[in-house]
Amino acid sequence: MTFDKRIWRTRIKVVKIRLQQQRGLSLELLRYKGPIHCARLIVREEGILGLWAGAAPTVMRNGTNQAAMFTAKNAFDTTLWKKNEGDGQVLQPWQSMISGFLAGTAGPICTGPFDVVKTRLMAQSKSGGELKYRGMFHAISTIYTEEGLRALWKGLIPRLMRIPPGQAIMWAVADQIIGFYEKTYLTNAPL
Question: Where are the Solcar repeats (predicted)?
Answer without folding.
Answer: 1-79, 91-180
